[in-house]
Amino acid sequence: MLLTQKYRNHRFILASKSPRRNDLFAELGLSFSQISIDTEEMVPMSLPAMVTARYLAIQKTETYTSKIGKLQPDTLLITADTVVINENQILGSPKTKQRHSNI
To answer: What residues are labeled active site?
Structure first.
């Protein structure tokens, strides 16, 4: 069964500022709304780099539900985060085009 058929009666909320995520989600052909969730991205120092993106996505989900409340059963909240890792070190978001090119 195609995703568009399986979830045709659901409401999708894309909780992301990312234009790329918006484009990717639109390519799925599903109707969705996009919101921005501002959350402080504090990660425990003991957390392995490989699980950081998942940890941050869960934080965003918890922030949303604490502000808005429980989601309706037919609503799917999509959160995500991206981290760049080199030799088990998180590089962080590039602040300039030059830094972006270097990464």
So the answer is: 81
pLDDT tens sequence across 31-55: 889 888 778 878 888 888 888 889 9
CB 79 within 8 A of CB 16: yes
- What is residue 23's predicted lDDT score, i.e. its pLDDT? 92
Give domain 3-102's CATH number out of 3.90.950.10, 3.40.50.1820, 3.40.640.10, 3.60.21.10: 3.90.950.10
* Max CA pair span of the chain: 45
CA–CA dist 94, 74 (Å, integer): 37
- What six digits make up the tokens of 6? 């399986």
- Sign of the CA dihedral with 28 first, then 84, 93, and 78 last: positive
Question: Across the strands, what pairs with 14?
Answer: 34, 78
Residues in the chain, overall count: 103
- What average pLDDT does this structure show over 69-95? 81
Q: Give the residue extent of every domain in the chain.
A: 3-102
